[in-house]
Amino acid sequence: MSQSEKELITDLKKCDFTEINDYYKKKSEERKAMTKEEKLVLKAENERRTKEYGICILDGHREKIGNFRIEPPGLFRGRGEHPKMGLLKARVMSEDVIINCSRGSKIPQPPPGHAWKEVRHDNTVSWLANWTENIQVRQENERLYKVICGLRKTKFKKNCLRVSPSTSC
Question: What CATH number is given for 54-169 in this structure?
Fold first, then answer.
């Protein structure tokens, strides 16, 4: 909450959240009431997006990207008793996102009417997208860390086996 909101709202117990609760219950019922055909259409759209954005090529290998979606706006939960729990996460717009891809690759299109903050071609970093989120005010990014570690581990094990079968990696 902003400072003016904190002055206005002093006790959350006095707030009425039934409208918000009813809205989410209605959305849940709508999802449950979807026909099989509607669910298949949604599934096909998700698969199309995963094929388009969920795979990258790293050193000639096709690798799955763990998470290529940015969290939607909502209440920040944190872990445990986080001091910023309950703060509102703002929507991350495409103008806040830096895209990192190799030269000559297909750059993903931003939503209509928007543009990326920047498009880089930096092969010295292990992230594909980078943005600043408003709660922790730190850089968030979608990393290829697990993929890179897996490739390094695989290559390292092969090298260990060539050098000395008794050496453990």
Answer: 2.170.11.10
Q: Measure the CA–CA gap between 3 and 90, rounded to whole angstroms.
A: 16
The chain-wide mean pLDDT, for the chain, equals 79
In this structure, what are the phi and psi dihedrals at residue 132, rounded to the nearest 5 degrees? Answer: -105, 125
Q: Which residue has the tokens 């969920």?
A: 54
Report strand pairing: 74-75 vs 88-89. Answer: antiparallel
pLDDT surpasses 90 at 27: yes
Confidence at 142, pLDDT banded by 50, 70, 90:
low
Burial of 29 (0-12, 13-18, 19+ CB in 10 A): exposed
Q: What is the spatial distance between Cα 48 and Cα 53, in angstroms, rounded to a whole number? A: 9
What would the two tokens of residue 107 be? 């750059």
Assess contact for 75 and 94: CB atoms under 8 A.
no
Residues 89 and 71: beta-carbon distance below 8 Å: yes
Nearest Cα residue to 56 out of 151, 157, 153, 138? 151
